[in-house]
Amino acid sequence: MATLGIRPILNTSDLEGTISDLEKIGFKVNWCYGNPIFFAGLSINNFEMHLRETKHPIPPVSQLYVSVDNVDGIQIVLQSKGIETKNGPFDQEYGMRDFEAHLAGGTIIVLGQSLSD
C-alpha cells in the first residue's frame, strides 16, 4: 500500500463562513457535497483538507497545525483580511514559533514555523 496523502476532516458549525475565511487566505474550493451542502474539500499548494458542517454538539474546537514559512508575515495577512488571530506568534519551548487563526464555526488553525528556519 502506498500512502498518497492525509486529508484531515475538520468539523464546523458554519461551513459557509469557514470556507469564506479560508478563501481569504488562498484556499480554493475543490468540491462541495450535499443539498444543502454539508461537506467540502479545499486545497492550497499541495495541502488538501475537508470540512464537515455539523449542527450536533461537537468538541469545543477542531484544530489543525500547519507548518509554514514566514509565520509573522502570514499573521499580518490574516489580520488584514479580518481573521481573528490569538496567542502569538510566540517562540515555543517545543521549537516552533506559532499562533492561532480562529475561523468561523469554531475551527482553529495553528500556524507555525520552526525556530531553526
Brief write-up:
The chain has 2 helices and 8 strands, in the order βαββββαβββ. The protein is of the alpha/beta class and 117 residues long.
Question: What would you note in describing this structure?
Answer:
- It is a single chain.
- By secondary structure, the chain is an alpha/beta fold.
- The chain has a single domain (9-114), classed as 2,3-Dihydroxybiphenyl 1,2-Dioxygenase, domain 1, CATH 3.10.180.10.
- The chain is 17% helix and 47% strand.
- It contains 2 helices and 8 strands, in the order βαββββαβββ.
- The protein has helices spanning 15-24, 71-80, and strands at 9-12, 28-34, 37-44, 47-53, 62-67, 84-91, 96-102, 107-114.
- The strands form 2 sheets. It has a 4-stranded mixed beta sheet with strand order 1-4-3-2, covered by helices on one side.
Question: What are the SSEs and their pairings?
Answer:
Elements: E1 9-12, H1 15-24, E2 28-34, E3 37-44, E4 47-53, E5 62-67, H2 71-80, E6 84-91, E7 96-102, E8 107-114
Parallel strand pairs: 1-4, 5-8
Antiparallel strand pairs: 2-3, 3-4, 6-7, 7-8
